[in-house]
Amino acid sequence: MDKISLSVKEYYLKGVFQIYELHVKDLEWDEVLSSRFLGLILNTIKLREYFDLYVIDSLTYLVTHAREEDILNFFTEARNIVEEKNKSIIITVHPYAFNEEMLVRMRSISDVHIILSVKEIGDRIVKLLQVPKLKVQ
Are 41 and 56 in contact (CB under 8 A)? Predict the structure, then answer.
């Protein structure tokens, strides 16, 4: 985090910034396992409601093996947590993880949709940040 000029060490030491990782080495992914992990993520958020912000980086691998119904349920439940508990949830997913129809559905559930891309402009490589959807309250 220091590389992007965002020091979180103090918050981590105070216990107000926590990191959880899923240990998934050597797992054979399928729809059932992906569904369970999506549920585990939601339960972890619900059990730790004292945080205001949750960042999930990244759901790509989980959703490529999950059923559409489980993905939609996950995002709907996350949306409900945001609205009912006044929380913020940031989820990263590579766009190739969804077909076009699912992308449309995900965008409709979400308050914000951000696209980060890398483009070559002349002899320079630049990162572009596009915000096609931003719900302001």
Answer: yes
Terminal alpha carbon distance of the chain: 29
Q: pTM to 2 decimals? A: 0.85
From start to end of the chain, where are the E strands? 53-57, 88-92, 112-121, 124-134
Cβ contacts of 57 within 8 Å, gap of 6 or more: 90, 91, 92
Summarised one tens digit per residue, pLDDT across range 106-134 is: 889 999 999 999 999 899 999 999 999 99
CA distance 109 to 117: 22
Q: Distance between CA 18 and CA 12 in Å, rounded?
A: 6
What CATH number does domain 2-111 carry, 3.40.50.300, 3.10.20.30, 3.30.470.20, 3.90.120.10?
Answer: 3.40.50.300
Assess contact for 29 and 57: CB atoms under 8 A: no
